[in-house]
């Protein structure tokens, strides 16, 4: 009897329960707190035009963060997403002479190719994800700057429609982000690939021993991350009607990682929280907007993001222990 009792799991302590609650619901509480703060102290915050602006600006962060969540779910990381956005923007300009559809396809293909390269380095060459994607971050940004060395403006009816049109009052870029969120959520929760992805992140060795195609799964995940980053790059380029690889997507990887980690997806893999990731992206956008509206420098946002990442990682680590 004593032996049986000894094997029973111990009840969670107060500190562990608090960390578990923080990891699961902290992002929702933070978004609510920021909303209440802005309602009380930010002029014109409740205006429809402001909400529209916030949704348009958060859409690329959401799209990139969805891909990052899939990668982190496999215990990986993708630092190249911002550079992929820049490359996709450059490809739009280069191929726009062949028509907007060709330019968009070329941009998306470029993102997928970069993702496949990163995935191959991780899955087949055995390079650590942070090293492989860091190399791509530097190299792809340089390639984008070589292809389009300066700010290039353009006027294209199709891209103008993509970047500025609304459907039933919702900007098209927001609708695209919402549809992609639903697709990723379905893939993670309802498909074999989603379950395999989580299994690889939870225990790669066990997944391999059980017969899962671990390498193919890893490559596919990085391809999806590159593809989603390219989509975000195309949408941002269409909205701006210009390509500037020097600045487009700069530090986007930091925003995406913050959104994913704050949203409850642990850096140790084995879990993907899609809705939490979206809320994490919204938290980042609200934080940036709040600081700007209260005349605080952009550098404050980066410092706050660093603190948020540390707090989220600490909460996940404490809960795991």
TrEMBL record:
Keyword Transit peptide: no
Topology of this chain in the membrane: Multi-pass membrane protein
Keyword entries, A-Z: Cell membrane, Membrane, Transmembrane, Transmembrane helix
Span of the signal peptide: none
Subcellular location: Cell membrane
Domain of life of the organism encoding this protein: Bacteria
GO MF annotation list: transmembrane transporter activity
Record InterPro entries: ABC_transp_permease
Keyword Membrane assigned: yes
Any one Gene Ontology cellular component term annotated for this protein: plasma membrane
Transmembrane regions listed in the UniProt entry: 25-42, 54-72, 130-148, 168-188, 217-236, 248-267, 274-292, 298-316
This protein's name: Sugar ABC transporter permease
Annotated source species: Phytohabitans suffuscus
């Amino acid at each position: 009897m004593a032996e049986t009792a000894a094997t029973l799991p111990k009840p969670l302590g107060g500190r562990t329960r608090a960390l578990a609650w923080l990891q699961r619901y902290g992002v929702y509480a933070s978004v609510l707190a920021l909303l209440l703060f802005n309602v009380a102290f930010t002029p014109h915050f409740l205006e429809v035009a402001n909400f529209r602006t916030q949704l348009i600006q958060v859409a690329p962060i959401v799209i990139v963060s969805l891909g990052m969540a899939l990668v982190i779910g496999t215990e990986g990381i993708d630092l190249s997403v911002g550079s992929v956005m820049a490359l996709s923007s450059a490809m739009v300009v280069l191929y726009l002479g062949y028509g907007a559809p060709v330019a968009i396809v070329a941009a998306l293909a470029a993102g997928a190719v970069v993702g496949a390269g990163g995935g191959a380095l991780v899955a087949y060459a055995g390079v650590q994800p942070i090293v492989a994607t860091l190399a791509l971050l530097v190299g792809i940004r340089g390639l984008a700057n070589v292809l389009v060395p300066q700010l290039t403006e353009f006027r294209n009816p199709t891209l103008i429609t993509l970047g500025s049109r609304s459907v039933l009052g919702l900007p098209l870029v927001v609708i695209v982000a919402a549809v992609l969120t639903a697709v990723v959520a379905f893939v993670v929760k309802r498909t074999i690939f989603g379950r395999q992805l989580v299994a690889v992140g939870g225990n790669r060795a066990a997944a391999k021993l059980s017969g899962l195609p671990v390498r193919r799964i890893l490559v596919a995940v990085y391809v999806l991350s590159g593809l989603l980053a390219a989509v975000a790059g195309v949408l941002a380029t269409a909205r701006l009607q210009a390509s500037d690889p020097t600045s487009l997507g700069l530090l986007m990887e930091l925003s995406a990682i913050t959104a994913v980690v704050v949203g409850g997806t642990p850096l140790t893999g084995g879990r993907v929280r899609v809705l939490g990731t979206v809320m994490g992206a919204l938290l980042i956008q609200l934080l940036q907007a709040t600081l700007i509206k209260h005349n605080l420098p952009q550098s404050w946002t980066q410092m706050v993001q660093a603190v948020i990442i540390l707090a989220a990682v600490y909460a996940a680590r404490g809960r795991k222990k």
